[in-house]
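User: I'm new to structure prediction. If I give you an amino acid sequence, what do you actually give back? Let's try with this one:
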Amino acid sequence: MHARLRSMTFIDSLFFELSDATDSSLKAVLKDEKGKVCSMLETEVGCAQKFFRWEGLNDLPYGVYTLELTGGKVEQRMRLVKRV
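Assistant: Good question. You get back a string of structure tokens that encode the predicted 3D arrangement of the chain. For your 84 residues, that looks like this:
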């Protein structure tokens, strides 16, 4: 499974577009610039699911983050910015 973010900046949630989806789990880890885990999410994704929204990120401080996604055998890393 591959995931694409709608935007590389966020305020309180991240919106993913999923491709090559199969019934599997999606694990997302959001780390700050120092490598500290700030938030983590694990969920099951169905093969018909094309979009996914990760909410509840409004308590994180503004700044630069690294998003690590694992879905099936595929791992992705992205650099994100939380803004006002």
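You can read the tokens as a compact description of the fold. Here is one thing that stands out. Residues 2-82 form a domain with the Immunoglobulin-like fold (CATH 2.60.40.1930).
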